[in-house]
Amino acid sequence: MEKFAQRLKQCREQKKSSNPNWTQKFVADKIGMARTTYTAYENGTKLPPLDIVDNLASLLEVSTDYLLGRTDIKEPNNIDSNAEFEAWVNDPRSKILFKEFNESSEEQKEALLKMWEILKNQGKL
């Protein structure tokens, strides 16, 4: 609970350093709660429900795991990774490989995976 309170306050104050509007009242209003309730979260005397943790993380542009002290990585899911995955999924060559791999027998799948490893180890991939 202490870690959450520290990180919540730290994130808000970091935003406030570049924009003075980021007061406790400002955040409380954005989330739709009383300032005293939000202040209790920053002071560590009260823990918010999960939906509020999620809303706070979104507002502060950090991950819920960061706020909860589970990781030191502030950023929520890496947008670049998502874009990279979307590009791969939408590439017609990937669709062919995925479809054909799934339609292959187990023996063929094993052979393809072995060939892939050989190519990777030769520095071709």
Question: If you had to describe this structure to a student in words, what would you say it looks like?
Answer:
This protein has 125 residues and is mainly α. It folds into 2 domains: 2-68, lambda repressor-like DNA-binding domains (434 Repressor (Amino-terminal Domain)); 79-121, no CATH class. It has helices spanning 2-18, 24-31, 35-43, 50-60, 64-68, 79-90, 92-103, 106-121. The radius of gyration is 23 Å and the shape is elongated. Keywords: DNA-binding. Residues 1-16 have a biased composition (Basic and acidic residues). Residues 8-67 form the HTH cro/C1-type domain. Pfam families: HTH_3.
Provide a concise account of the structure shown:
Keywords: DNA-binding. The chain has eight helices and no strands.
Low-pLDDT segments: none
What number of domains?
2
Question: What is the string of SSEs from the N terminus onward?
Answer: HHHHHHHH
What do the pLDDT scores average to? Answer: 88
- The CATH class of the largest domain is identified as Mainly Alpha
Radius of gyration, CA atoms, in whole angstroms = 23 Å
Query: Count the helices. How many?
Result: 8
Summarize the biggest pleated sheet: none
State the helical fraction. Answer: over 70%
Gap between N and C termini: 46 Å
Taken from the alpha-carbon principal axes, the silhouette is elongated
What percent strand? under 5%
The assembly state of the depicted protein chains is single chain
Number of strands: 0
CATH 4th-level superfamily of the largest domain? lambda repressor-like DNA-binding domains
In terms of structural class, how would the helical and strand content be classed?
Answer: mainly alpha
InterPro entries: Cro/C1-type_HTH, Lambda_DNA-bd_dom_sf
Keywords: DNA-binding
Organism: Psychrobacillus faecigallinarum
Pfam families: HTH_3
